[in-house]
Automatic annotation (TrEMBL):
PANTHER family xrefs: GLYCOSYLTRANSFERASE, UDP-GLCNAC:BETAGAL BETA-1,3-N-ACETYLGLUCOSAMINYLTRANSFERASE-LIKE PROTEIN 1
Glycosyltransferase 2-like domain sequence ranges: 10-115
Pfam families, A to Z: Glycos_transf_2
Entries under SUPFAM superfamilies matching the protein: Nucleotide-diphospho-sugar transferases
Lineage: superkingdom: Bacteria
Provenance organism: Candidatus Marimicrobium litorale
Protein's UniProt name: Glycosyltransferase family 2 protein
């Protein structure tokens, strides 16, 4: 028997594209999967689509529960508590199309590590439009993943994430948190607590871009401009404050170096101009690209981190 993977699927009014996603899960070369769905109150036929898939795949292979009704972040994080005997856990969005070897590639990496060490696999994605036509690729990240990067940005799309049981237990230990996104939170926690993170530069799925996306890829210039304006209005500073508060709930689980980085980052955020510049340098925080690091410096100057 192969490694058991629990696919954690959050849904809300996703009937338009859900069938393609379910078919791509069914085609996985890693066949020892089970599907755990948290539906957050769909009114469009999503539940009928899920029920039909459960009948086809087998009643014991698919479980469908009701979500907490507090938004997509809470819906996905609630799936961490689903009763399952799986070895690995994969988040799944309702509107993507997975490569047939997506789970197998992730398990190949994760199974090479000690099972008691928290570990996360994530990858690049191919972007597609509503009709499934190619749009481009998500950004290629070339700098090493780590906590000093995670404080600034998320490189790990939730739809690509697969993590081991030790990582799941670690995330559960932090309890109920108020964070910006479930995938950024996973990257923050696993990197902060000394876990292993592997970013695969080869895409593992088609990431659909459409009008109903909760969070898009922000590849278009207009999207980036809107994010810049929101940052100038303080949104990024609020996001960081929420992430910091959540990390501090269980700061004893962080490594010594992560606690140092977090402390330096927090002090810098509340310092004067030169204190912010020096403090961010001491913290060692970094973005993945040159434009990103220029943006980090500007945000430090403007005190919007």
């Amino acid at each position: 028997m192969g490694s058991r993977v629990a696919v954690l699927l959050g849904t809300l009014n996703g009937a338009e594209f859900l069938g393609e996603q379910l078919e791509s899960i069914e085609r996985q070369s890693a066949t020892c999967w089970q599907l755990v769905v948290s539906d957050d109150g769909s009114q469009d036929g999503t539940q009928e689509c899920l029920s039909a898939f459960r009948r086809r795949a087998g009643e014991g292979r698919v479980s469908i529960t009701s979500g907490p009704g507090r938004g997509y972040v809470a819906n996905f994080l609630s799936l961490l508590h689903a009763p399952t005997g799986a070895d690995y856990f994969a988040f799944a969005d309702q509107d993507d199309v997975w490569d047939a070897d997506k789970l197998q590639r992730a398990v190949c990496f994760l199974s090479s590590l000690p099972p008691d060490r928290p570990a996360l696999y994530c990858s690049r994605t191919r972007l597609i439009d509503e009709q499934g036509g190619p749009v481009g690729l998500s950004p290629l990240f070339t700098r090493p993943p780590g906590f000093a990067n995670a404080l600034i940005q998320n490189i790990a799309g939730g739809n690509t994430m697969v993590f081991n049981r030790a990582a799941r237990e670690l995330l559960i230990a932090f309890g109920d948190v108020d964070v910006v996104s479930h995938d950024w939170w996973v990257y923050l926690v696993i990197s902060a607590c000394g876990g292993e993170i592997f970013y695969d530069s080869e895409p593992s799925l088609d990431y659909r871009q459409h009008r109903g996306n909760q969070i898009g890829s922000s590849q278009h210039l207009s999207d980036r401009w809107n994010r810049l304006l929101l940052g100038l209005r303080g949104r990024k500073r609020d996001w960081n404050a929420r992430n910091i508060a959540a990390l501090n709930q269980m700061s004893t689980l962080l490594t010594d170096d992560s606690r140092r980085v977090l402390s330096e980052f927090c002090h810098a955020r509340h310092a004067g101009l030169w204190g912010r510049i020096i403090g961010m340098r001491r913290a060692g925080v970094y973005a993945q690209s040159v434009p990103g690091n220029i943006g980090l410096f500007v945000a430090t100057i403007l005190n919007i981190l």
